[in-house]
Structure formats: structure tokens, C-alpha cells
Amino acid sequence: MGSNSTSDPPPADAAALDALVARIRACRLCVEAPRGAPLPHAPRPVLRVSATASILVASQAPGTKVHASGLPFTDASGDRLRAWMGVSTDDFYDAARIAITPMGFCFPGQDATGGDLPPRRECAAAWHDALFAALPAFSLILAVGRPAQAYHLARLGLAAHLGASLGATVAGWQAVRAAGLARPAPVAVYPLPHPSWRNTGWLKRNPYFEREVVPALRADVARLLGRGA
Description:
By secondary structure, the chain is α/β, with parallel strands linked by helices. The protein has helices spanning about 15-25, 30, 65-70, 75-85, 90, 120-135, 145-155, 165-170, 175-180, 200-205, 210-225; strands at about 55-60, 100, 140-145, 190. The protein starts with 13 loop residues before the first helix and ends in a 5-residue tail after the last helix.
């Protein structure tokens, strides 16, 4: 994995990236210029990036616990995601190696049933193209949830691999990964369901995921963290 091809993007500019992240963390668009109803609480953008990370966790949006902590995946979903990746908490939060960037930077609030609302639309429209132009070329991307899959597959020229549903996209994970690795700047992309415990039923109905996808993902993560196959 990885490449030294002359077609690879140049290394990220750490100072420019830091300045962009500071602007993102100060963003109040979803309150002051919202697309639809304004955010029902004070914004608290959450992301962890660096100029050196080779792994990207592209997630959906913070939940209530993450909104309180300011640290992504400080909840049961994070426990499951780290288990899928085969990493410790220390590894997961090492921003020099693993970037975590949700499609919506702030907790979007909850619907009438207590479920989290979709990621706010303001974030991707205002920030994502500039952010991913400033970030390094990743060797591995975990596209968690359909919004992240739609955005990142399109960004990488792999939109043809977005299925009609999240389940269809995840089921095609081998083709998605192979297509990413065939790019001039190779990247292994894994389309994943959200690790929320609300998806336990989906995992039980789709046993191939933990049988096939999780071991392959762990092997790719281990190689990038320098632990061998």
C-alpha cells in the first residue's frame, strides 16, 4: 500500500492545515446561516487531523457523548470501531497517524425517536473540499456510513462503486478496495456501516462483514501502523 508515484499529491502544508482547522473549529454556519432549521445548540466542531496521517476515519457526525467530550468516538460506537480496526485507544487517537473527520463536524441533534439526525449539510458544502485538498494523500480510508461513502467515493473518482443502499455498497467492499488501489495515488477504501449498537441487527444479518471485511481491514491497518500483516 502507498505509492512513490510522481502523480501523488505533494505533502500537506502543516501550517496551512492548522489555520484551516482553526477556522473550522470556529465555524457557526449552522446557527448563523443554516440550511434549514438552525442547530438547536451551540456548535462544537469535532475533528482530528494532521499533515502526516496515513489513515482516515471518515465518519458521519458526533453524538451526544462526543459533543460533551469534544473527542470523536468516545462512546460505545468508538469501542466497536476500534475493535474492527484492531487498534488501542492510544493508537486511535494518535492524530499523527490516524485522522478522524466526520461529514458533519457538530452534533446535529436528535429526531423524535431519540436517534441522531443526519450530518448537517453546511459542513461538507463549506469546508470539505478545502480540507481534503489540504490533507495528505491517505493510504487507507474508512468510509463510515452512506454520507461519507457518497462524498469520498465521488472525491476519489470511484462514484460508480456507490451502491443503491449502504448494504449494497458495503457488500461490494472488495471491488471498492481494488478500485481505490488501482488509482494513480493508491488508497484502500473500506465502505463500512456505522459501528453504532443500533446496527447490531444488521451485523447479525450480514455475517460476512465480521468474517471477511473486519480481518482484511485489520490487516491493512496493522501494515500502516508498522505491525506487519
